[in-house]
């Protein structure tokens, strides 16, 4: 998106509010997450280089919400998530559940699932999250890192995750907590601001430092998870902006109790080739016992045959373009 187009949107939607250019991308990212859309292969929202975004599906005006039938888009939004098909990943899932048990007891956990493109990192994470989702009380949030050229938007995947949590059924509690303990983060989600917020923080938060944002987020997470544990998924960290890595390091190294599980994925080879600081950070955290790395092994021919047989079974229903049935245990 061009700078002019971005500023026009910010001025129209969030007038007289000091926010970064990242909020537009965060809002689009949140929409894509809800719709199950992918930036690389969009079905609903496409990125138009140097222009902005385009909605791809036809839009039909509805005269009355009461008389309207459920649209395909609403049907998709209300459809339950179907866990991915997994084979021979039981040991990996068990390691994730062990970390989750420790996190629920107040021992913060950072787990990095590693492997090359297509090996199944996202499928494993989604399978684990589908199991955790069955628990009665848990915060769940996703943040997606995207490939960029030059400096990336600071904290982009974390802001995406925060936006999801604020729109969750208990999101009003988080908004109140952000207002109290982490206003530098709340102003990055300007659609949540009240007029009182805008008046109070118009000048107060200008020039807020990155160190303040880090401290506020860490303390907010510790307060938030005192009642309800949190699973924060950060996908494709090999594309992460550096500010997000600073936050990841702080969350991993803090000594205060927190019922927090940060579950990240990344491609080691890509991090090395690009000279991304994630690889060094991951090694340091692992060496000091602040994180756990779970590498995914390649599947052997027999396991691949098992997967294909079940993947293309006539009994496997289609869901969002993927033929899946269940997670194998």
Number of helices: 14
Order of helices and strands: HHEEHHEHEHHHHHEHEHHEHEE
Strand content: 5-15%
User: Quick one: overall form?
Assistant: globular
Q: Order of strands in the sheet with the most strands?
A: 4-5-6-3-7
Uncertain segments? 62-81, 316-329
The CATH homologous superfamily name equals P-loop containing nucleotide triphosphate hydrolases
Q: Compute the number of structural domains.
A: 1
Rg calculated over all Cα atoms: 21 Å
Give the helix/strand class.
Answer: alpha/beta
Proportion in helices: 40-55%
Q: Specify the biggest β-sheet.
A: 5 strands, parallel
Q: What do the pLDDT scores average to?
A: 79
Question: How many strands in all?
Answer: 9
> What is the CATH class name?
Alpha Beta
- Amino- and carboxy-terminal Cα gap: 44 Å
Q: Any idea of the CATH topology? A: Rossmann fold
- Write the CATH architecture name: 3-Layer(aba) Sandwich
Topology, element by element:
Blueprint: H1 3-13, H2 22-35, E1 45-48, E2 52-55, H3 72-78, H4 90-104, E3 109-114, H5 121-132, E4 139-144, H6 156-166, H7 171-181, H8 183-186, H9 195-204, H10 210-224, E5 230-235, H11 242-253, E6 260-266, H12 268-273, H13 278-287, E7 292-295, H14 301-311, E8 318-319, E9 322-323
Parallel strand pairs: 3-6, 3-7, 4-5, 5-6
Antiparallel strand pairs: 1-2, 8-9
Helix pairs in contact: 2-6, 4-5, 7-10, 10-11
């Amino acid at each position: 998106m061009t700078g002019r187009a971005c500023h026009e949107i910010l001025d129209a939607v969030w007038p007289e509010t000091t926010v970064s250019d990242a909020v537009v991308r965060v809002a689009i990212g949140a929409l894509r997450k809800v719709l199950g859309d992918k930036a690389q292969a969009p079905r609903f929202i496409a990125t138009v280089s140097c222009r902005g975004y385009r909605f791809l599906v036809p839009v039909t005006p509805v005269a009355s919400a009461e008389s309207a039938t459920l649209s395909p888009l609403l049907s998709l939004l209300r459809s339950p998530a179907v866990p991915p098909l997994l084979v021979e990943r039981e040991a990996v899932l068990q390691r994730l559940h062990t970390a989750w048990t420790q996190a629920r007891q107040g021992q913060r956990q950072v787990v990095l699932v590693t492997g090359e493109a297509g090996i199944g990192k996202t499928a494993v994470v989604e399978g684990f999250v589908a199991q955790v989702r069955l628990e009665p009380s848990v915060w769940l949030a996703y943040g997606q890192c995207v490939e960029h050229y030059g400096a990336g938007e600071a904290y982009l995947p974390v802001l995406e995750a925060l936006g999801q949590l604020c729109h969750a059924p208990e999101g009003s509690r988080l908004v109140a907590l952000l207002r109290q303990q982490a206003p530098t983060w709340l102003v990055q989600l300007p659609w949540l601001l009240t007029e009182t917020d805008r008046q109070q923080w118009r000048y107060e938060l200008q020039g807020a430092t990155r160190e303040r944002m880090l401290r506020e987020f860490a303390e907010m997470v510790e307060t938030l998870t005192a009642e309800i544990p949190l699973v924060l998924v950060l996908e494709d960290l090999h594309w992460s902006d550096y500010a997000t890595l600073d936050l990841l390091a702080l969350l991993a190294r803090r000594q205060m109790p927190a019922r927090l599980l940060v579950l990240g994925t990344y491609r080691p080879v890509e991090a090395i080739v690009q000279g991304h600081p994630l690889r060094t950070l991951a090694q340091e955290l692992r060496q000091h016992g602040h994180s756990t790395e779970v590498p995914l092994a390649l599947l052997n021919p027999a396991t691949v045959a098992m997967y294909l047989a079940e993947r293309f079974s006539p009994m496997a229903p289609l869901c969002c373009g993927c033929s899946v049935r269940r997670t194998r245990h």
